[in-house]
TrEMBL record:
The gene is queE. Mg(2+) binds at T41. Its EC number is 4.3.99.3. Keywords: 4Fe-4S, Iron, Iron-sulfur, Lyase, Magnesium, Metal-binding, Queuosine biosynthesis, S-adenosyl-L-methionine. Its cofactor is [4Fe-4S] cluster; S-adenosyl-L-methionine; Mg(2+). One of its GO terms (molecular function) is magnesium ion binding. Homodimer. This is 7-carboxy-7-deazaguanine synthase. Belongs to the radical SAM superfamily. 7-carboxy-7-deazaguanine synthase family. Substrate binds at V13, Q14, G15, R28, T93. Catalyzes the complex heterocyclic radical-mediated conversion of 6-carboxy-5,6,7,8-tetrahydropterin (CPH4) to 7-carboxy-7-deazaguanine (CDG), a step common to the biosynthetic pathways of all 7-deazapurine-containing compounds. GO terms for biological process: tRNA queuosine(34) biosynthetic process.
Amino acid sequence: MSEFAINEIFQSVQGEGSHTGVPSIFVRFQGCPVGCPWCDTQHTWITDKKDTIPILELATKRQEAPTHAIFNSDTLLAEFTRRGYTAKHIVITGGEPCMHDLLPLTTALVATGFSVQIETSGTFPVRVHDDVFVTVSPKINMPGKYPILAEALLRADEIKHAIAMQKHIDELDTLLASVELTQQPVIFLQPISQQARATDLAIKTCIARNWRLSLQTHKFIGIE
Ligand code: SF4
């Protein structure tokens, strides 16, 4: 059975994209080589064995740290039950979860009756169950030098692009022009760090193109 390094598990409300407002169990994977300078989860980048902690300790972890526990699909489902979680939607995020083959894990989660969403940078193949809702947040021209894969864009149910300036919208345009999308994903623009200028630009562009605005609503109300 596949095992995964998980940085944190928590229950909250999805704050971004199409599922905004949906009660969700977040499963944050450890490990990401993409290197976005503005990444707000830099503690997930490196997976080092010395940072492995027991599953029970993960529940009491309070600060953002690279510590992580190793799970498989059985122990993950058991942990949801042990914590008494009630949400029916699971968000697999990171880090970059698509560094792993997630087909067995997502198949087990879907078979248990959960709806499953995955958040990925689009830099790795998306190996998940067909019913999984895929959010590609393309991290273009980042220091890790990973190209955005056409196959990831083709699998996307929504494309959620973080922007701070016009250059980021231009980069998205170039990316979208490079691939013939067979299903038309919903496109969101999400201002980086709630900056006022970025928010203004995102609103104007969304109105002009009939795209959607995604705000990190969890940050506005101070929840995880
Ligand atoms: S892909 Fe996500 S986790 Fe990785 S560096 Fe970029 S924002 Fe951070």
